[in-house]
Design a protein that fits this description.
The protein is an all-beta fold. It has no helices and 14 strands. The chain starts with a strand and ends in an 11-residue tail after the last strand.
């Protein structure tokens, strides 16, 4: 019994969750904040005792460059599919006719897999949906058909890649950082 419909993915400004959206840094991580919003048919509220936001992490790829961030070839350093990746309940807002959740995927350039990198691109794919706990059966049921597919691409470059300036690494987002609906290719090297 569908009753939730994906309505939009926000990637800038501030959404219903009151979190800053778009590229940002936090504790060494370079994150890409997004908010997914789902319209809820208020007529189904009487059939469910609880609503939860669900998410699945799909295929992802981690690419790096060593040497010139522009001219060096891309090297694949990791590619995984993580499985269940539900949003933290503190990142979910239920407004009766709308449920929204916040997520912020992205890499920490200090991670050992990125050793020696001058540029890092992480492509991550996800699906999100809403489930309701049926009053009749006590079971959680998916309420979205279809689920929302979305992606995050974080592309960062070390502005001090050649070591000419004092102070070590100086990581910055590039214009290739993006998020949106659908999934991105994780097999081929980035084209940037």
């Amino acid at each position: 019994m569908p009753g939730a419909t994906f309505s939009q993915l926000l990637s800038s400004g501030v959404g219903e969750t009151k979190r800053s959206l778009g590229p940002g840094n936090l504790l060494g991580f370079f994150l890409n904040g997004v908010e997914l919003q789902f319209a809820i048919d208020p007529s189904i509220r009487g059939n469910y005792s609880a609503f939860v936001a669900k998410q699945w992490a799909g295929p992802e790829a981690h690419w790096i460059k060593r040497g010139s961030p522009l001219g060096s070839p891309w090297l694949r350093v990791a590619a995984t599919s993580s499985g269940a990746d539900d949003p933290d309940p503190a990142n979910v807002v239920d407004r009766i006719s709308l449920i929204a959740y916040f997520d912020s995927p992205g890499p920490n350039p200090g991670n050992a897999r990125y050793t020696g990198a001058t540029r890092i691109q992480v492509v991550q794919n996800f699906t999100g949906w809403i489930e309701g706990k049926s009053i009749a059966t006590g079971n959680f049921e998916g309420l979205c058909d279809p689920v929302a597919a979305w992606f995050s691409v974080v592309d960062i470059v070390n502005g001090n890649w050649d070591g000419s300036a004092d102070g070590g690494a100086s990581w910055q987002f590039t214009g290739a950082t993006a998020s949106g609906t659908g999934w991105r290719d994780t097999n081929g090297a980035p084209v940037v």
